[in-house]
Design goal:
Blueprint (H helix, E strand, L loop, with lengths): L25 E13 L4 E7 L2 E7 L1 H4 L1 H8 L6 E10 L14 E12 L19 H6 L1 H4 L3 H23 L3 E2 L17 E3 L7 E3 L5 H9 L4 E9 L11 E10 L3 H18 L10 E3 H8 L13 E2 L1 H4 L5 H8 L3 E7 L7 H13 L6 E6 L2 E3 L8 H7 L6 E7 L1 H18 L10 E5 L4 E3 L6 E3 L14 H4 L8 E6 L2 E8 L4 H10 L4 H16 L5 E7 H9 L29 H6 L8
Helix pairs in contact: 5-7, 5-17, 6-16, 11-13, 15-16
This protein binds one RNA strand of 78 nucleotides through strand 1, strand 2, strand 3 and helix 3.
Length: about 600
RNA sequence: GGGGCCGUAGCUCAGCUUGGUUAGAGCACUCGACUGUCACUCGAGAGGUCGCGGGUUCGAGCCCCGUCGGCCCCGCCA
């Protein structure tokens, strides 16, 4: 890959790009003083720009003592312009840890153009020195962003964004922008609202996603659309959740599920290649039902085994307190077998128990096989044939939960993940992509029994299951699909309903009456009645993809100016109060507690 | 809305268990020495609202209550 010429009137080369091939060249550099070393005559300055570091030397016997003295007095993070000659370093003075370590620039001039206060947080950091606290890093973001790691992440983000545009554009997709000021939606996440000055008491909402707009673009005949779309959700944050985030949003017409998945796979492959690691040619698939049965979650981590197994038969008919009640109530006994798990300490097992309890379970039944014999509270009640059904090998530990699947699944998932980490069962470089398909259309609220959309209310039912809408709608599958990597959802999508009559039926099932549907989604319904092609699409969580490919552990490390977990921007100080006059103009009266 | 952890010099941390004279260290900073370093080295110095408020106590960085901020998790996130 050839670097573009970044030469300007102030500089001829990038600091970090200088190599042996430049030896003898007179260069002009601009950069930040990373570190300076004053040896009492000879002075070295490591100069930094976005390409990296280069050592600039000031030898008083060549430069005169005045220039060397000025170099010695440079503070960290000062911006300077330097003129000099790229020189090969003597063999013993090369630095193999530096990309530019074979050369140095012998300075002939030095000009301070950007004096700098002593940095509030260090940019240059010793090998074993800790990072500054994250709130300080966010408050002084312009300094933190100078660090090599964040520079790398931001540049990677740019490359992934460009690769996305190139891939989708080459595949015939049109990049079309949709409004940021849009209509509040009662469904889904809480909206960020923007008051209207012109219309007292009325509000725009920031989009949670461009969902309806992209469907209307299909109605309008744009056939293939994409957008790198900023989305907003006013919900509480996590390490992998920001209030504003970026989606790669894709929609296409005259497509079925397979067509969308093929494009999504191609894009994934391109992005992983751009990120420096190849994605598999074909991504395996698993049904939602299968994922829940074997992994207890709809985004299974397939980098390791320990699948959930049903061992109800081993306990059926037994008078054993842990399992009897659950089995009689129609529940099951399920769990995982942990290879080598018999060696886990009492303390570790208690910690697992705590995890189960925090996930809503009553506790774990633990059975291990040591030297051929079962050990644990259930060992006495299980005879040979029942014990055999557990299929525990020597040294294995069985961890079981009894009860309803809806309660046991999340707990089993947590246990499986925790154990995998504890036992180091996850290979370092493993990548396990999987498509999860055949999601249910609806989920039933546990208390009220009311139906809600699993994906969103515009998702098409599986054609085989349309009859179920009239009888047992909660059993109907949707044409919805999620792409999962290592237990993380990368993206998800669906084929949409393009038949207005079917859309009306689905709204009815969701408890949305005609009038409400018209008020909330009228412009979409009118669109569908105007002649809608079959269409569907997918949206990827772009920030999360960058995070994975950057090897970062927090979204904040791949977003230039992120928010804290309290949705604050520490750098610019948002949100903030506004003058009373501004509120008056917006017809807003703020009540304070 | 709930739970957990953290807050001491510009930065990273120790001190808190068991309250007691002047709150320490490394880095950074200032001054000085040093001509091949690359986390340069060496010497000296300056630097503190112990997040904030209240309480207990003869006495609080340390104990208690509240509060603010950060991080992680549950709820929430069609």
């Amino acid at each position: 890959m050839s670097e573009p010429a970044l030469a300007t009137t102030h500089r001829s080369h990038l600091c970090g790009a200088l190599r042996a091939e430049h030896v003898g060249t007179t260069v002009r550099l601009g950069g930040w003083v990373h570190r300076a070393r004053d040896l009492g005559g000879l002075v070295f300055v490591d100069l930094r720009d976005r390409a990296g570091l280069v050592q600039v030397s000031f030898d008083p016997s060549r430069t005169g003592s005045e220039l060397a003295a000025r170099a010695a007095s440079l503070g960290a993070e000062t911006v300077v312009l330097v003129e000099g000659v790229v020189t090969e370093r003597p063999a013993a003075m090369r630095n193999p840890d530096m990309a530019t370590g074979d050369v140095e620039v012998r300075a002939t001039t030095l000009r301070v153009v950007g004096p700098a206060d002593t940095p509030a947080i260090p940019v240059a950091r010793g090998k074993s020195e800790q990072l500054a606290a994250e709130d300080l890093r966010l408050r002084h973001r312009f300094l933190d962003l100078r660090r090599e790691e964040l520079q790398h992440n931001v540049i990677l983000r740019h490359r992934l964004m460009q690769r996305t545009r190139r891939y989708l554009s080459d595949a015939g997709f049109l990049e079309i922008e949709t409004p940021i000021l849009t209509k509040p939606t009662p469904e889904g996440a809480r909206d960020y609202l923007v008051p209207s000055r012109v219309h007292a008491g009325e509000f725009y909402a920031l989009p949670q996603s461009p969902q309806i707009y992209k469907q209307l673009l299909m109605v309008s005949g744009f056939d293939r659309y994409f957008q790198i779309a900023r989305c907003f959700r006013d919900e509480d944050l996590r390490a992998d959740r920001q209030p504003e985030f970026t989606q790669i949003d894709v929609e296409a017409s005259f497509v079925g599920q397979e067509d969308v998945m093929r494009v999504a796979e191609g894009l994934t492959r391109a992005l992983w290649e751009e990120g420096g690691s190849a994605a598999p040619a074909e991504i395996p698939r698993m049904s939602y039902a299968d994922a829940m049965e074997r992994y207890g979650i709809d985004r299974p981590d397939l980098r390791y085994g320990m699948e959930i197994e049903d061992v109800s038969d081993a306990f059926r008919g037994l008078d054993f307190p842990f399992t009897s009640a659950a089995l009689e109530a129609g529940g099951r006994v399920r769990g995982i077998r942990v290879p080598g798990g018999a060696a886990l300490s009492r303390k570790q097992l208690d910690e697992l128990d705590a995890i189960v309890k925090s996930a809503g379970g009553r506790g774990l039944l633990r059975i291990k096989r040591v030297n051929g014999a079962l050990e644990g509270p259930a060992a006495k009640v299980l005879d040979e044939s029942r014990a055999a059904k557990l299929r525990l090998a020597d040294g294995e530990l069985g961890l079981y939960l009894a009860g309803e699947d809806r309660l046991a699944n999340p707990a089993l998932d947590r246990v499986r993940q925790d154990v995998a980490q504890r036992m180091r069962l996850i290979p370092d470089d493993a990548r396990a992509f999987v498509w999860v398909t055949d999601f249910p259309m609806f989920e039933r609220d546990a208390a009220s029994g009311a139906l809600g959309a699993v994906h969103h209310p515009f998702t098409a039912p599986h054609p085989d299951d349309v009859p179920l809408l009239a009888t047992e709608p909660w059993k109907a599958r949707a044409l919805a699909y999620d792409l999962v990597l290592n237990g993380t959802e990368l993206g998800g999508g669906s084929i949409r309903i393009s038949d207005p009559a079917l859309q009306a039926r689905v709204f009815a099932l969701l408890g949305v009456d005609d009038e409400t549907a018209r008020a909330r989604f009228g412009f979409l319904l009118e669109g569908l009645r105007a002649g809608a092609p079959p269409h569907g699409g997918i949206a990827f969580g772009f920030d999360r993809i960058v995070m994975l490919l950057a090897g970062a552990t927090s979204l904040r490390d791949v977003i230039a100016f992120p928010k804290t977990t309290a949705a604050r921007a520490l750098f610019e100080g948002a949100p903030s109060p506004v003058p009373a006059a501004d509120l008056t103009e917006l017809h807003i009266n703020v009540e304070r507690e």
